[in-house]
């Protein structure tokens, strides 16, 4: 009986030890991410390169935009130099795979927080808010979503607009593109009657492209835009949250709004509070 009890205790000890080891291994996988970035000396950030004014290549062939400025500030505060950053070009559909395969540390590419995405990545606190709207070709007289029946609507693959219309308007034919430049060119060429995307991007594009009008119909409540990290990377996510809080105290997001967005939006946005959040927390 004593021998049986001893063996049972040994099995229990081994089970607990293995359990603790596995827990420690899992913890080790997600800890030390900040130190890893510091040792590498470069923060890898996934960004858009064709989505002005948020992420694009300017006339000097440099990454520019609101998201770029915020990412550079992250690098400055984490590594002591805003230039210790590698901008990795992404498309909407490649954002999650790039995180999962460790090609980037953070996604800063206008990534809307959704329940489905929260299952596969971890979001930090939001820094911006947007809604889906429609940009119509004036020749097609698109005044509401109902005017799209029997016409083609242009979207970018993997965006919230693509997901929204696929789910809620299956009778509207969608013309999908990987790149923003391709999508907007298709609209200019008349291959679609309208284009659906984040409202802020549409405001910027419509300002320099006459003959296209934003339909004054928001299809949903504004949604948060947030930095995304690999699932389980709690250390980096918490660092970003603390960083956004500190930047909020400095009104940094309002500062880069004035630098990167204010002139583009003009009267379309009455206050930066309509776009950016305070300290990474939605009002």
What class do helices, strands and sheet pairing give? alpha/beta
Let me know the average pLDDT: 86
Residue stretches low in confidence (pLDDT < 50, at least 5 long) are 1-30
**Percentage of residues in strands:** 15-25%
**In terms of quaternary structure, what is this?**
single chain
Shape: globular
Strand order of the largest sheet: 11-10-12-9-13
Largest sheet: 5 strands, mixed
CA-CA gap between termini: 66 Å
Secondary-structure element string: HHEEEEHEHEHEEEEHEHEHEEEHHH
Helical residues, percent = 40-55%
Radius of gyration of CA atoms, rounded to a whole number: 23 Å
Strands, total number? 15
Helical stretch tally: 11
Task: Describe this entry's structure for a reader.
The protein has helices at 2-30, 33-40, 66-79, 95-100, 115-118, 160-168, 180-188, 199-207, 234-249, 252-260, 262-265; strands spanning 43-47, 50-51, 55-57, 63-64, 85-89, 106-107, 121-123, 128-130, 132-137, 152-156, 173-177, 194-198, 212-214, 223-225, 228-230. The chain is α/β, with parallel strands linked by helices and 283 residues long. Strand 3 and strand 4 form a beta hairpin.
